[in-house]
Amino acid sequence: MKKSVIIIGAGVGGLATAIRLLSRGYNVKIYEKQKTIGGRTNQLIHDPFTFDLTASILLNREILEEVFSYAHLDFNDYIEFVKIDPTYRCFYPDGTQYDFSRDLVSLIKTLESFSIEDSIGYIKLFGEVYERYNIANRDFLQRSFENPVDFFNPSSLISALKTKAFSTSYQLISEYIKDEKLINFLCYQSLYVGVSPYEGPSIYALVPVISQLYGLWHLRGGVYSYIKALEKVIYQLGGEIITNYSVDEIIISDDKAIGVKSKELDEVYGDIIVSNADFPYTMAHLIKSGHHKGEYTKEKLKEMKYSCSSFILYLGLKTKYPQLSVHNLYLNTNFKENVEFAFTGKLPPDASMYIYCPTGIDDSMIKNEGESLSVVVRVPNLLFDSISWDKATVMDMRNRIVDTLKTIKGLEDLEENIEYEGYFTPKDLKNDFNSYGGTAYGLSPTLTQTNYFRPHFKSTQVKNLYFVGSSVHPGPGVSIVLLSSKLVTEEILKDTSSRFY
Questions:
Q1: pLDDT tens digits, residue range 94-120?
Q2: What percent of the chain has pLDDT over 70?
Q3: What are the backbone angles phi and psi of residue 490, rounded to the nearest 5°?
Q4: Which helix (H) or strand (E) holds 16?
């Protein structure tokens, strides 16, 4: 008889885990709070404009492909990758702009426009971080750490020292590069995992390295096309997705997880429960017994460190702006001060921002001759309780962003070409997606909250209960969460092949 699995949440981690387990013969049902699947990796449609709700940068296409190959499927039958070059176009307040190409010849010319010394330093930096990345990928990202001996052994500890993670991203980058503009370009990318480049471990300097060495790819239709592809596979493999079902409690009997319940709907039962809900939210709200929470008590959750949040402005424009690439950065004045505001409870007055404009290369995301533009600013999460995300705050942020965009050469008339605008705040992250404290990436991946020290895939107190997502090992981001789905599946297969409770 096939073992039944209930997955809480149809985010990318839950969907990928479902495919893996279905391909190994399990019966899988996913229960999703929203009427649409995808979790934070969702979509906003306001005809004629289509926007990716949050996720827009795919750091490693091989990880996305691997989910299909795991199920013995050809990814080409489900998704279409489009090459992006330059990987980034970077704008500065003084009017300068730089394209960072995946082509080495073009890249070197850009780097030499900063200085020969910085060009040499850039290549040396990437060589060192590439070496660290391969160590981290082999010995940490691709491994589970369910038991102390998995991490606290000579081999793992030697590898940890080789990654030299005790310095910050800024400290590492500034060892090799002196030009402030180039430093800020590299530092900004640490924010993709919700940590400050001035406090987070230097291993996150790997983000720009992966972008440069492996390239950035766009999925035709946007990142949400990946969610649709996973959904298609789940149905092909016989899985079920039930939307508009808000799980309010994980049912536990005799220290075993046996099902889930909703206040409005019937209880459902399964042999294995996998929570793709944000791990801190799961512990705070879905597990009722203090005993079954284990170490993750209310007090413990409050003490843990969390990632920053995001404010996103969606702009539907009536005209094309070829001045923009797909991925753009505007690195503002007082860069460090404004970045750190997101981690100290203040709104940045001169925010640096990420500008996503996929419609220049993807006409499937727009039905007119304009652009679907998303602008992301890192802001404090709701745990600071210092910002009221009311209409006045939203409009203040909106006006600052638009005023900044208009300083870019060629975008001076942007405001008069706005046909639609929408907003996404930390409150939306909390209310719509049960993100603890309205964080963008869950638990911050600090040194004391990574590898063995990050929440594990298996509950230590409740049998048959597992976790997947950005707040568990290996960490945040679509690509890394897909790795967590692989690792948690391996744990489930290992447990159920030997015995089943």
A1: 999 999 999 999 999 999 999 999 999
A2: 93
A3: -60, -40
A4: helix 12-22
The tens digit of pLDDT for each residue in 42-56 reads: 999 999 999 999 989
DSSP states along 330-352: E--SSHHHHHHHTTTT---TT--
The tokens of 123 are what? 């290549």
DSSP string, 431-443: HHH--GGG-SSSB
Residues pairing with 98 in the sheet: 90
Other Cβ atoms less than 10 A from the Cβ of 186: the count is 26
Contact 270, 255 (CB under 8 A): no
Residues, the chain: 501
Residue type at 126? F
DSSP alpha helix (H) spans, 191-247: 206-214, 224-236
Q: Give the pLDDT of residue 161.
A: 47
Q: Are 438 and 427 in contact (CB under 8 A)?
A: yes
* Ramachandran sector of residue 412 (left: φ over 0; alpha: ψ -120 to 50; beta: rest): alpha
Query: Is the bond preceding 348 in cis, omega lying within 30 degrees of 0?
Result: no
- Written as six digits, the tokens of 14 are 């839950």
pLDDT digits (tens, 9 = 90+) for 125-137: 988 888 877 776 6
Tell me the CA end-to-end span of the chain in Å, nearest whole number.
14
What does the block give as tokens for 408?
A: 């870019």
Whether 259 shows a pLDDT value over 60: the answer reads yes
Q: Looking up tokens 């930390």, which residue turns up?
A: 426
**Is residue 445 within 8 Å of residue 290, measured between CB atoms?**
no
What 3-state class would DSSP assign to 285?
helix
